[in-house]
Write a structure and sequence with these properties.
Elements (H helix, E strand, L loop, with lengths): L3 E6 L10 H6 L4 E5 L10 H12 L5 E6 L3 H9 L5 E7 L14 H4 L9 H8 L6 H12 L3 H13 L13 E6 L7 H10 L3 E6 L5 H4 L1 H20 L3
Parallel strand pairs: 1-2, 1-3, 3-4, 4-5, 5-6
Helix pairs in contact: 2-3
Length: 238
């Protein structure tokens, strides 16, 4: 039998390899597909839709997982009811800008030197007290491998995104993973999104914004359980 694929869309970094520990924890029953976005092409959400559609088209049955930046992208795609989609996982993400007040800084973002942001600041924001030397080094290496103008474009997209209209159009079951100490996505943003979704279960993890990197084991465990529930539902009564 063909394994159920878990297509993992990355956060702002766009580097799929950062989720390797999470993928390893998924076990042998699932097929992790770690998507990476182009590191040197300035692409917004609309440009990334066909990139992900090409990946989805290669799998007969799959779960789509949107982490942080990719959450809105996953919501847009799930609302289109693509063939083979069994479920949706939203991880530390949002349907509308998590920090709308930052839109006043739009003119500044165009010249923001992302690569000059101190590593300790990024670590505090993304990993918090769960930061480990190896994880911090991997995160910094991933961000530095992406052109600064690419990161600026993605940050602008996050500040202006609003895909709330897609929420009630999603027909598959949804799992929402949330970090208890997420410093980027306020809890009220997550609550508003989940309340508007037609079929959602919530799993709160003791962890930071970068859940899949810092807490891969509990996140993978819950995704495995979710996948079993979906497979059982698809099989129907015996």
């Amino acid at each position: 039998m063909i394994k159920l694929a878990v297509i993992v869309l990355p956060g702002l970094d766009g580097v799929g390899g950062l989720r390797a520990r999470f993928a390893a924890e998924l076990g042998d029953s699932l097929e992790p597909v770690l998507v990476s976005f182009p590191r040197d092409e300035v692409l917004g959400y609309a440009d990334l839709i066909p990139v992900v559609e090409q990946v989805m088209a290669r799998h007969e049955r799959f779960i789509l997982l949107g982490e942080s930046f990719s959450g809105p992208l996953a919501l847009i795609l799930a609302a289109r009811n693509p063939k083979g989609l069994l479920g949706l996982v939203l991880c530390a993400t949002f349907s509308t800008s998590p920090r709308p007040g930052l839109r006043v800084f739009f003119p500044v973002i165009g010249s923001l030197p992302f690569h000059a942001i101190p590593g300790r600041v990024l670590s505090w924001l993304l990993l918090g007290k769960w930061a480990e030397p190896a994880g911090r080094a991997q995160l910094m290496a991933a961000l530095r491998s992406v052109k600064s103008q690419v990161l600026r474009k993605r940050a602008k997209e996050v500040m202006s995104i609003d895909v709330a209209a897609c929420l009630d159009q999603i027909s598959v079951p949804i799992l929402c993973l949330r970090g208890s100490a997420d410093r980027l996505v306020p809890i009220h943003v997550s609550k508003e999104m989940c309340e508007a979704l037609p079929s959602v279960s919530i799993f709160d993890v003791s962890g930071p914004h970068a859940l899949l990197q810092a807490m891969p084991k509990p996140c993978a465990m819950r995704v495995r359980n979710f996948a079993r529930e979906l497979s059982a539902r698809q099989a129907g009564p015996t």
